[in-house]
Amino acid sequence: MTGQKRVLRLALLGCGTVGSEVIRLLHRNGDELAARVGARLEIAGIAVRRLTVDRSDLPVPAELFTDDPMSLIERDDVDVVIEVVGGLEPARDWLLAALKSGKSVVTANKALLAEDGAALQAAAAEGGADLYYEASVAGGIPLLGPLRESLHGDRITRVMGIVNGTTNFILSAMDSTGAGFGEALEEATALGYAEADPTADVEGYDAAAKAAILASLAFHTPVTAADVYREGITEITAADVASARTIGCTVKLLCIAQRQVDADGTESVGVRVHPAMIPRSHPLAGVTGAFNAVFVEADAAGELMFYGRGAGGSPTASAVLGDVVAVARHKLTGVRSASDTSYALLPVRPIGEAITRYHLSLEVADRAGVLAAVASEFATSGVSIRTVKQEGHGDDATLVVVTHAAPDAALSSTVDRLRRLDSVRKVLSVMRVEGET
Ligand SMILES: NC(=O)c1ccc[n+]([C@@H]2O[C@H](COP(=O)([O-])OP(=O)(O)OC[C@H]3O[C@@H](n4cnc5c(N)ncnc54)[C@H](O)[C@@H]3O)[C@@H](O)[C@H]2O)c1
Ligand SMILES: N[C@@H](CCO)C(=O)O
Ligand code: NA
């Protein structure tokens, strides 16, 4: 690497939706990136699962493809490893090997980071390499960069947002058409938003992994996916969405990572992913289709919102290449970025200790004393009711209750007891409420 001809060589692992767009973007912007970095970025090899697939549409010579990722990683002329395969294994082995040998890594692998981010950080420190992963959360939206750099002088109190495009598409469709979950999922699949196996998205695993990554960075505390309370959207019904509408809300799958401070000043964090009703006037309510948006609240900066495309080959490739430019510059100047810190080691609180608000819609018998019986269950748990609305029809009535904030455990035990009351014929909808209603 001397004079005008400096070159940095990249090993690309994976050539699917994201990998193929990384190749195209690198080809398209190659000259500019060389000027920005101060060295030409060249692909040394591309690891794929099957060499027989026709990839002649990609602007790279066929001899670059290999089905032996580890040998590619170990090559002496490789400076940076880009991993866009996904999954825990064998990606974990590849990235640990690359980092320990001093090769910087750029990855989009949220599942691995949320499970074993600490081991990857340790390997990066051991090898003196960089570990960058902007693409792993909210795809093309610059979010981890601001959290790990721009906001480092501040103190983050909350990160709340929509970090899964598939579920946001489904919930937006349910809201605009009145469709049930199954019908909206079918539409999302037909349009290519939902994968053939949508479990990771609709059950909230994808969002929970992202929540863990966001919480770790925001609160300087190791948080893994297993620490995140998770509920998906498969149980959301058209009745839930209609019920939200009656109180001026819409339903969103939210990722919430929050700093909690007790009266004695003890700090902890709560990290959760679940559907929630939010007021239609809330900025997150206007985030429709497959878009993502994340609110960050910090002591000095106040409220910030990041919005854009959280998925798709091209936006995600933008985030990957942004990271490649950063680690390439470090390589040239012989520095590495500081590791993500986890000095705070805050305890992660269980969901029962989160302070939430509930919306309940109940079908009750319309007779004397029923409202009092329902209200008394809330009182027993120390939960204060904020609004209650009753509409009679025949012998029955629909009771819509919105509570004030209370510990989640108190709210859920109240719901359990209400389900057992004789006068409660059916619980039509129960959901947490976020944002000022
Ligand atoms: N697609 C998106 O919108 C998006 C957004 C953000 C992050 N990500 C993340 O990016 C990563 C890649 O996602 P994708 O959508 O491109 O997936 P994809 O399934 O389209 O591509 C993955 C590729 O890796 C290949 N592969 C599997 N095992 C391999 C092996 N052992 N060796 C070499 N190649 C192997 C597969 O054949 C496939 O072509 C995942 O971690 C994903 O979570 C994707
Ligand atoms: N499946 C994810 C892709 C981006 O991580 C989503 O729907 O948002
Ligand atoms: Na991002």
Automatic annotation (TrEMBL):
Keywords: Amino-acid biosynthesis, Methionine biosynthesis, NADP, Oxidoreductase, Sodium, Threonine biosynthesis. The keyword Oxidoreductase applies. Its cofactor is a metal cation. Its EC number is 1.1.1.3. It catalyses: L-homoserine + NADP(+) = L-aspartate 4-semialdehyde + NADPH + H(+); L-homoserine + NAD(+) = L-aspartate 4-semialdehyde + NADH + H(+). Belongs to the homoserine dehydrogenase family. This is Homoserine dehydrogenase. It comes from Fodinicola feengrottensis.
